Amino acid sequence: MRQLLEEFWQAVAQYWGNWRILALFVLAAALLLGIKKYGLYRKALLTLLLVLLVLVYNPFAKLFWSKVMQEHLYWRMFWILPAVPLLAFVMTGVLDQKAAWKKGIFAVLVAAAIVLCGKNVYTGGNFTKAENKFKLPQESVMVADYMLTEDGETKAIVPEELFCHIRQYSSRISLLYGRDILGFTAPVGNKRFHKVYEEMESQAPNVRTIMRAAKKYDCQYVVFDSSKLLRGDPVNYGYEKKTQIGRFTVYRREEKVKNE
Question: Domain check: are 7 and 94 in the same one?
Answer without folding.
Answer: yes
